[in-house]
């Protein structure tokens, strides 16, 4: 049974946290090139595998993915198996009641596909749905209420990926998750603590309390078993019937009944009409590498490329890794990008998003010219760009690469930790609160402090804007770096820093993952830094005018670097229980 798997230290990422404040190598300004991956000078080493690699936030799920690869499955087969497994083993973010984005690279065809399985608003949703009679936003309605639940996309997204690009049957892929749900998993300290931290939200719903707490209502303790028979049944229906076992029939009826009982407006028609969208990935270049990421309604890929275009104007390698000068120009770039995000981004099926303008090198050059090296520009003075024409820390990401060169970068979520907290009665399925990712009211921040405009207003069947940023960096036309992260509004900047750590500073993927991070999102006008960042660097940033706020950690990247020698995986040490596993 997967719940009893024991991992050797060689299979697990190093659980360390440290700050790298000087660069060991200095690549050329125009085109970076990496030296040997392993080095005696390195402060952290990645996990190496010759054939395949799976890196996720939960060790059992990573092992399931590797088992699929060993059985002859490809990266898509493994990714879908990991997705269903995480719904059992990492219930605060892994899901079948939420949605997300998957980036798939198929080596034999040399093509990359963006699969958008983001949740949609119920058909009866409208722009004033979360406002009271005075026109004020009511937070609880978009976060802890039936109205908070968007139409889930995960099951159909996973099914489409498997049918189009996988090689194994859905029954084979879902079987490990069914076994885990039926037989139980051991409560870890991480899982126990997360349930304590969200008890107020979860315990509002008897159907949820019955699963995630003891019969007397007390908290689970480390070593207890979490057994989910109703979820096992729901997964079995999906295994037998495909997505129809979720979007139609008994599961759909139970989801709608629970949502409506909680005050929501979702209908059976909303579930039956849900569609996954395959989109063309967004592409950019950075110092000789091609960066491929998700297009809108994910804002991540677009703004990663926008910021990289700006930062390409500066000699980042000469500034040095995590120096005040490097972090200063990064923070300024972040402010301009997030200002643009608030104004222009939304569901491209409903609004015109000026993608080509925002990722134009000339547009980036104009932004770079506004950045002063010796002082910060207050956010109040930064406005969204003059364009011609017209989210939770508890998301989870995983990356998979197989022996044929196929790669998957997948980020999915329930939004908040454990989503709305509502389990659809009789299904074991936790439901999202993704409706909070819409602009509840233009100018009013969401649960992550992000400001949105009319482009991201609520409308029936519309997809909310997201920060999820599954990304694949190409070198010479082949995957070189597969990465992504949870982190709500911080995801975009976390992914940006992984890319820069590898390309500009030539860190191996373990060092790049462990290095201290910063985050700025335009409003509020604060620069968040991890406490591991050098105190002298923080003082220098403050001297430039940055309002610095220190926090414990930012994000949890799951990354793979691919070279001619093999695959190098790193699971971020910031969150317990994650694992890079290869063979």
UniProtKB/TrEMBL annotation:
PTM comment: Cleaved by autocatalysis into a large and a small subunit.
Catalytic residues as annotated in Swiss-Prot or TrEMBL: 395
Secretion signal, residue range per the UniProt entry: 1-32
Top-level taxon of the source organism: Bacteria
Catalytic function, reaction form: an N-terminal (5-L-glutamyl)-[peptide] + an alpha-amino acid = 5-L-glutamyl amino acid + an N-terminal L-alpha-aminoacyl-[peptide]; an S-substituted glutathione + H2O = an S-substituted L-cysteinylglycine + L-glutamate; glutathione + H2O = L-cysteinylglycine + L-glutamate
InterPro entries xrefs: GGT_bact (IPR051792), GGT_CS (IPR055262), GGT_lsub (IPR043138), GGT_peptidase (IPR000101), GGT_ssub_C (IPR043137), Ntn_hydrolases_N (IPR029055)
GO molecular function: glutathione hydrolase activity; leukotriene C4 gamma-glutamyl transferase activity
Keywords recorded for this protein, A-Z: Acyltransferase, Glutathione biosynthesis, Hydrolase, Signal, Transferase, Zymogen
Enzyme Commission number(s) from the entry: 2.3.2.2, 3.4.19.13
Pathway note: Sulfur metabolism; glutathione metabolism
PANTHER family in the record: GLUTATHIONE HYDROLASE, GLUTATHIONE HYDROLASE PROENZYME
Protein known as: Glutathione hydrolase proenzyme
Source organism of this protein record: Shewanella holmiensis
Lineage of the species this protein comes from: Bacteria, Pseudomonadati, Pseudomonadota, Gammaproteobacteria, Alteromonadales
Gene that this sequence comes from: ggt
């Amino acid at each position: 049974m997967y719940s009893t798997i024991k991992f050797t230290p060689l299979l697990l990422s190093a659980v360390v946290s440290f700050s790298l404040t000087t660069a060991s190598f200095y690549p050329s300004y125009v085109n970076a090139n990496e030296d040997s991956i392993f080095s005696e000078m390195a402060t952290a080493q990645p996990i190496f595998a010759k054939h395949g690699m799976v890196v996720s936030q939960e060790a059992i799920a990573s092992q399931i993915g590797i088992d699929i690869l060993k059985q002859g499955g490809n990266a898509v087969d493994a990714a879908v198996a990991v997705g269903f497994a995480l719904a059992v083993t990492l219930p605060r973010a892994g899901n079948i009641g939420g949605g997300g984005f998957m980036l798939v690279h198929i080596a034999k065809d040399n093509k990359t596909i963006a699969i958008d399985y983001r949740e949609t608003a119920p058909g009866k949703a409208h722009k004033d749905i979360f406002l009271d009679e005075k026109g004020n936003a009511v937070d609880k309605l978009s976060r802890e209420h039936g109205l908070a639940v968007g139409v889930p996309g995960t099951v159909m997204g996973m099914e489409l990926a498997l049918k189009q690009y996988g090689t194994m049957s859905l029954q084979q892929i879902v079987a490990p998750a069914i076994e885990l749900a039926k037989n139980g998993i051991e409560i870890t300290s991480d899982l126990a603590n997360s349930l304590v931290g969200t008890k107020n939200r979860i315990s509002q719903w008897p159907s949820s309390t019955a699963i995630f707490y003891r019969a007397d209502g007390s908290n689970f303790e480390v070593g207890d078993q979490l057994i989910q028979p109703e979820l096992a049944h729901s997964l079995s229906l999906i295994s037998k019937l495909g997505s129809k076992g979720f979007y139609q029939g008994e599961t759909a009826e139970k989801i709608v009944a629970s949502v409506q009982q909680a005050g929501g407006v979702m209908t059976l028609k909303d579930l039956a009409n849900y569609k996954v969208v395959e989109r063309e990935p967004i592409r950019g270049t950075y110092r000789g590498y091609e960066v491929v990421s998700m297009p809108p309604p994910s804002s991540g890929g677009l703004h990663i490329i926008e910021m990289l275009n700006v930062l390409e104007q500066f000699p980042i390698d000469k500034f040095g890794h995590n120096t005040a000068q490097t972090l200063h120009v990064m923070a300024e770039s972040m402010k301009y990008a997030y200002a643009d995000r608030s104004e222009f981004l939304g569901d491209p099926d409903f609004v015109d998003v000026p993608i080509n303008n925002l990722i134009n090198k000339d547009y980036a050059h104009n932004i770079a010219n506004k950045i002063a090296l010796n002082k910060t520009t207050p956010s109040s003075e930064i406005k969204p760009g003059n364009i011609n024409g017209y989210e939770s820390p508890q998301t989870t990401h995983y990356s998979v690469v197989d022996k044929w060169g196929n790669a998957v970068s997948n980020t999915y979520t329930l939004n908040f930790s454990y989503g709305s907290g509502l389990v659809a009665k009789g299904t074991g399925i936790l439901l999202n609160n993704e409706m909070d990712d819409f602009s509840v009211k233009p100018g009013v921040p969401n649960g992550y402090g992000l400001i949105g405009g009319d482009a991201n207003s609520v409308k029936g069947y519309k997809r909310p804007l997201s920060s999820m940023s599954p990304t694949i960096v190409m070198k010479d036309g082949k995957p070189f770096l597969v990465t992504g992260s949870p982190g709500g509004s911080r995801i975009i900047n976390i992914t940006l820093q992984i890319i820069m750590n590898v390309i500009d500073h030539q860190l191996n993927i373990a060092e790049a993952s462990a290095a201290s991070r910063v985050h700025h999102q335009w409003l509020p006008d604060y620069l968040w830094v991890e406490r591991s960042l050098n105190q002298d660097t923080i003082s220098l940033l403050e001297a430039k005018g940055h309002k610095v706020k220190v926090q414990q950690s930012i994000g949890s990247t799951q990354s793979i670097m691919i070279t001619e020698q093999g695959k190098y995986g790193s699971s971020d040490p910031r969150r317990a229980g994650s694992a890079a596993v290869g063979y």
